[in-house]
């Protein structure tokens, strides 16, 4: 087995994170089989407290909808938004970072000024503004989160590419007459991937948090509820019905925690020497 | 000295550039909004009547070519004109200035809580790296880091305000009470505890991680090893060799992060009914009052720029090496 994978499989952080994520993903995929009833329809009496009726273990919301089923169905929105926005942000970050790091000079200057600019503006306010202006939908939320989260990737890739640029194997490729594009894609980028992967795991976590916050404020996709929406909708009745906001928040916490653990474990696995130093 | 002045001027020029770019971005965002910009500006305030829209178009020069529009928008904003909220019947700049002090109080307190708590946590973890204490601090900061801010707020209302009845959960002052002087300060402080702590927790985790990493980096440096070899007492070595150098980068990083506190303030103010610009932004979101939203975005961006400049200058003063190198 690949040594990185072996280190990862022995790390308790990675195992905990991976298990939680697996459960969340499976329940998102198999929600229709686990809970055949329509999650939008009234299932039983509203305001049913948790742990009373074994059929509705986590209780029901203001409209009598099963909270447990809701958590499973709504995992989709949260996970899809987290993944899609991160993939898009990573692609943008890699392209900008690679161009800036490889070519240097004025290209680097311009691209890094733009990156700095996007890091300076208050990201959450900007994301909210984007969603409000593009009108709330899953796509606009993904776009907004992507636009505020690519800069760290660009900076990371840029510094990695800039340091690899003058290595012997890259010079050799240049001498052999390979094109810039081929050198970047085939020689340099594969060597920058591991820190980017570790960072991506943390980015999915913060994307899920951002999506939850956007939906909490009532800007979620009106046709696809998410965990954040469940909390936002039941905020006004929190004094009478704590469970309606408690369980969705707990699920968000668990998933975000899992992604953070996985990200840290990936970082440790890719940099075994640094990890050991930290642990000493 | 001239070098310092020059670098400060350079920093200022950069800040001005950023502010200009933000104004331009705002202009682009108005254009991106669905429908005619005039209807965006009017909001949905029943302003659909043709004559009013034409008047708006003329007023904002929407019948002129795009570059001219951009120019008049930018120069307007730079003169402090952030547009007019037809929803609230007030200029946006007035609305925001009204609410700004409450937000500054909230974010300032949260920042202080986060910085002090975070640096202390990071110190404990970094100086005890690998031991049980480090593990506990890491778990706690990871929890703070992973919990949705608004959920922490809601749960702390449930615990401290509904069940324990220790602290007020809503607003900035007690409704109906007209306190003056010291009593007023105590009242506001009591209302401030929950929102400021909620807002501070996430950033406390961020600062704790940064401090821990920074301490781990510094304590392996040659001069620390030398100090240790010379038999310096541990307490003194930690204070004057490790902490002094480890905390320097925290200033800059804290400055960059602090600007993002404002974003969190929207959530905290919404949960706790704190009468600041975050709450204003939330109301504007519900009513799709884009002018107010753009104004809030502009003002919070300015806050970030100013804050970054302050920390940058602070850093130069604390660490003379930076000024010399620039």
Automatic annotation (TrEMBL), chain A:
Main location: membrane
Keyword field: Cell membrane, Membrane, Peptide transport, Protein transport, Transmembrane, Transmembrane helix, Transport
Transmembrane stretches, start-end: 15-35, 79-104, 124-148, 196-220, 241-262
Pfam families: BPD_transp_1 (PF00528), OppC_N (PF12911)
ABC transmembrane type-1 domain sequence ranges: 75-263
Topology in the lipid bilayer: Multi-pass membrane protein
GO cellular component term, pick one: plasma membrane
GO biological process terms, semicolon-separated: peptide transport; protein transport; transmembrane transport
CDD domains listed in its UniProt record: TM_PBP2
Subcellular locations according to the entry: Cell membrane
Family assignment from sequence similarity: Belongs to the binding-protein-dependent transport system permease family.
Protein name as catalogued: ABC transporter permease protein
Organism of origin: Oceanicola granulosus (strain ATCC BAA-861 / DSM 15982 / KCTC 12143 / HTCC2516)
Lineage summary: Bacteria, Pseudomonadati, Pseudomonadota, Alphaproteobacteria, Rhodobacterales
Automatic annotation (TrEMBL), chain B:
Membrane topology term: Multi-pass membrane protein
Location within or outside the cell: Cell membrane
Cellular component terms (Gene Ontology): plasma membrane
InterPro entries according to UniProt: BPD_transp_1_N, MetI-like, MetI-like_sf
GO biological process, one term: transmembrane transport
Pfam families given in the database record: BPD_transp_1, BPD_transp_1_N
Keywords: Cell membrane, Membrane, Transmembrane, Transmembrane helix, Transport
Residues covered by the ABC transmembrane type-1 domain: 100-315
Spans through the membrane: 12-33, 100-123, 135-164, 184-206, 246-272, 292-315
Domain of life where this protein originates: Bacteria
Similarity annotation: Belongs to the binding-protein-dependent transport system permease family.
Name of this protein: ABC transporter permease protein
Species annotation: Oceanicola granulosus (strain ATCC BAA-861 / DSM 15982 / KCTC 12143 / HTCC2516)
Upper taxonomic lineage: Bacteria, Pseudomonadati, Pseudomonadota, Alphaproteobacteria, Rhodobacterales
């Amino acid at each position: 087995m690949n040594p990185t994978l072996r280190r990862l499989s022995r790390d308790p952080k990675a195992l905990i994170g991976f298990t939680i994520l697996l459960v969340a993903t499976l329940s998102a995929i198999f929600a229709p089989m686990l809970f055949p009833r329509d999650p939008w329809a009234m299932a039983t009496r509203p305001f049913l407290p948790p742990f009373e009726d074994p059929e509705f273990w986590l209780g029901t919301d203001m409209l009598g909808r099963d909270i447990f089923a809701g958590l499973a169905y709504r995992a989709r929105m949260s996970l899809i938004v987290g993944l899609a926005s991160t993939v898009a942000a990573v692609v943008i970050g890699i392209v900008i970072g690679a161009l800036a790091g490889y070519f240097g000079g004025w290209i680097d200057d311009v691209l890094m000024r733009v990156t700095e600019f996007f890091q300076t503006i208050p990201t959450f306010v900007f994301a909210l503004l984007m969603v409000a202006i593009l009108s709330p939908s899953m796509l606009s939320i993904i776009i907004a989160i992507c636009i505020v989260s690519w800069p760290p990737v660009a900076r990371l890739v840029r510094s990695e590419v800039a340091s690899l640029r003058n290595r012997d194997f890259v010079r050799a490729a240049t001498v052999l007459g390979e094109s810039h594009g081929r050198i970047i894609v085939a020689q340099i980028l594969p060597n920058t991937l591991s820190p980017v992967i570790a960072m991506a795991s943390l980015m999915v976590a913060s994307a899920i948090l951002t999506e939850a916050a956007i939906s909490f404020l009532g800007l979620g996709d009106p046709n696809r509820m998410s965990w954040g929406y469940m909390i936002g909708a039941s905020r006004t009745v929190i004094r009478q019905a704590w469970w309606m906001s408690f369980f969705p928040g707990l699920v968000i916490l668990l998933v975000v925690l899992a992604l953070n653990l996985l990200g840290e474990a990936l970082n440790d696995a890719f940099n075994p020497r640094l990890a050991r130093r930290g642990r000493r | 000295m001239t070098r310092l002045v020059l670098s400060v001027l350079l920093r200022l020029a950069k800040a001005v550039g950023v502010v200009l770019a933000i104004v331009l971005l705002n202009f682009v965002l108005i254009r991106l909004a669905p429908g005619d910009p005039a209807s965006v500006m009017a909001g949905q305030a029943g302003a659909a009547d043709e004559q009013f829209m034409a008047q708006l178009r003329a007023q904002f020069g929407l019948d002129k070519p795009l570059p001219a529009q951009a120019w008049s928008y930018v120069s307007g904003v730079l003169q402090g004109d952030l547009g007019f909220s037809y929803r609230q019947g007030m200029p946006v700049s007035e609305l925001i200035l009204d609410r700004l002090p409450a937000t500054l109080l909230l974010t300032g307190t949260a920042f202080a809580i986060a910085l002090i708590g975070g640096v202390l946590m990071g110190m404990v973890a970094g100086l005890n790296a690998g031991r049980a204490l480090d593990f506990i601090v890491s778990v706690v900061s990871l929890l703070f880091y992973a919990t949705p801010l608004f959920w922490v707020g809601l749960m702390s209302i449930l615990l401290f305000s509904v069940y324990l009845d220790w602290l007020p959960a809503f607003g900035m002052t007690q409704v109906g009470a007209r306190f003056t002087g010291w009593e007023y300060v105590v009242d506001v402080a009591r209302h401030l505890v929950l929102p400021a702590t909620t807002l501070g927790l996430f950033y406390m985790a961020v600062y704790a991680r940064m401090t821990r990493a920074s301490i781990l980096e510094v304590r392996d440096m040659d001069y620390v090893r030398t100090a240790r070899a010379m038999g310096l007492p541990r307490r003194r070595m930690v204070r004057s060799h490790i902490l002094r150098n480890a905390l320097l980068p925290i200033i800059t990083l804290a400055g960059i992060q602090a600007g993002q506190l404002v974003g969190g303030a929207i959530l905290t103010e919404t949960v706790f009914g704190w009468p600041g610009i975050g709450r204003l932004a939330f109301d504007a979101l519900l009513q799709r009052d884009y002018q107010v939203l753009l104004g809030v975005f502009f003002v919070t961006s300015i806050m970030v720029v100013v804050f970054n400049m302050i920390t940058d200058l602070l850093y130069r003063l604390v660490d003379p090496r930076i000024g010399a190198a620039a």
